[in-house]
Amino acid sequence: MGSRAHYVIIEDGRHRNLYSQWGAHEIDLDLLPGPGSALRFARAQHPVEAWTDAEMCDGAALFDLDTRTLLWFGHCDGDPAVRTAALMALRRTWPGWTVEWAYNGLMDVVARLGTDPAAIRAPRAMPVADDLRTPEDFHAAFPQMRLSPEAYPPGSLLPRELPLGPIGLGEADPDEPWGSVLLTVRQEGRVSAYDVDGTPAIIAENGAERVFEYLASWTPRTRLPRPPVAGVHLDADARRAGVWTSYPDLLGEPAMSAALWPSWRWDLWQDRSGEQLDRCDGAVEVPAPDLCAGFDRLSERFTKHQDGGSAVEGISMLLSVVGGLRAAAEEQGARLRADTGAAMLHRPIDLEEHERKATETAIEEVRP
User: Fold this and answer.
1) What proportion of the chain, given as a percentage, has pLDDT over 90?
2) Which residues contact 264 (CB under 8 A, 6 or more apart)?
3) Helix or strand or coil: residue 236?
4) By C-alpha distance, which of 225, 218, 327, 210 is closest to 257?
5) Residue 8 and residue 15: Cα distance in Å, rounded?
6) pLDDT exceeds cutoff 70 at 187
7) CB burial class (10 A; 0-12, 13-18, 19+) of residue 337?
8) pTM, entire model
9) Are 23 and 60 in contact (CB under 8 A)?
10) Of 110, 134, 130, residue with least CA distance to 120
11) Beta-carbon contacts of residue 239 (< 8 Å; ≥ 6 apart)
C-alpha cells in the first residue's frame, strides 16, 4: 500500500527520477511554497530508475528547470474545488513558471521525457500457465476468479493470455459523498444525462457497444446531487465524443481504445466542464464546486501538513498497532514477527518562517 509519487527534475537537458512511497496524497501541499522549497523536498527523495505503472502512481511532479515548467498531478483531497484553489495559489507562488496539470497522470510526465507512455501502462492481459489449459484448471487454481462460459466454454482450450478488464460501469450512489462522472448522451436529437461510478478512462475502455448496453438499463438524471469530478459527452448522432476531468484519470484513453469506438472522434477538453454543459441543452442541473470551501480546506490542510501531515499520521498508527500486537503476543508467550520496512517515513520539508507566511499570504491573495 502507499501513496506513490514520482518527482522528476530536468536540468541542462538531463533528468533525475526520485520517488516516495507516501508522497502523492499531499503533493499539492509540498509544491505550494514555491520552487525553492519544492525542489529541496524533491531532491531529498529516493533516487530510482524504474517507474511505477501509470495506474499505481497517485501523484507526480516534473520540474523542468530549463523551461521553468512545473507539470504535476495529485489527489487534492478528492475535491475539484481544492484542486482549483491549489492551481490558483501555485500560479502565485511559482512566478515566472508555467504550471501545468498532467491529465494523463504519469503518462504525461514520461512523455515529456521522450518515453513512450504505453511502456508504463498496466498490463491488459494475464499470462496463462502451461498447466492451466482449460477453464476447469483455471477455476481450480483461482476459485475467486470467474471466466465467462460464453467466451470460454467448459473443456475448451484457453488462450496463452487472458484479457484483463475493462472494469464494469455502474450508476453512482447519490448518497455517497465523493464525486462521480457526468455522462451525457445526445441521440436522435435529445440529450440524456447519467451519474456514473467510474472514470472517463473506464468509460472509454469499455467501448461504444458496451457503454450503450449499460445505458439501456440506467435511469436518466435531471440533477446531480454533487459536483462531478469529470464528464463524458457522447453525441451518437454525429459520432463525436468529448471528455473533461479534474483528475489525472485519462491514462492515455480514449486514444488507446480507438478500435472500440469505430469512426468516433474524441475531443479532449482538459478541465473545461462548460464544454459539456454547453452541449446538454439544459437536460441536467449540475451543482458548481464550492471554491470558497476549497480554499478553506486547502489552508487547513497546508497548516496541518507542516506538523507532519497524513503520511506521518498513517505510519505512526501502523507502528502503534504493530507495537500493541507485539506486546499482546508476548503476554501470551508468543513472539510476533512484523516487517515494517515499507513504513518508510515521509514528511514535508522544513519551511523557513518566511516561506510559510508567504504561502499563507499567497493563498489568501488569490482567494475569491
Assistant:
1) 71
2) 208, 239, 240, 241
3) coil
4) 210
5) 7
6) yes
7) exposed
8) 0.86
9) no
10) 110
11) 263, 264, 265
Exposed, middle or buried: residue 250 (CB in 10 Å: 0-12, 13-18, 19+)?
buried
Taking 60 as the threshold, does the pLDDT of residue 343 lie above it?
A: no
Helices and strands per DSSP (H, E), number in the chain = 10, 14
C-alpha angle 180/21/164, rounded to 5°?
55
Q: How many CA atoms lie within 13 A of 348 on its CB side?
A: 26
Q: CA–CA separation, 68 vs 96, rounded Å?
A: 7
Amino acid occupying residue 281: D
- Residue 226: all three cell numbers together: 454533487
Tell me which H or E stretch contains 101: strand 98-101
pLDDT higher than threshold 80 for residue 31: yes
Q: What is the DSSP string of 29-98?
A: HHHTT-HHHHHHHHHTSEE-SS---TTT--EEEEEETTTTEEEEE--GGG-HHHHHHHHHHHHHHSTT-E
At 261 the three-state DSSP class reads: coil
Question: b/e per residue, 152-170, with b = 16+ CB within 10 A?
Answer: beeeeebeeebeeebeebe
8-state DSSP, 225: S
Q: What is the pLDDT of residue 183?
A: 98
Cβ-contact 222, 238 below 8 angstroms? no
Q: Find how far residue 282's CA is from the centre of its chain.
A: 29
Banded model confidence at residue 339, pLDDT cuts 50, 70, 90: low
Encode pLDDT of 298-325 as tens digits.
Answer: 999 999 998 866 556 656 666 666 666 7
**Please, is 140 exposed, middle or buried when counting C-beta atoms within 10 Å of its C-beta (0-12, 13-18, 19+)?**
exposed
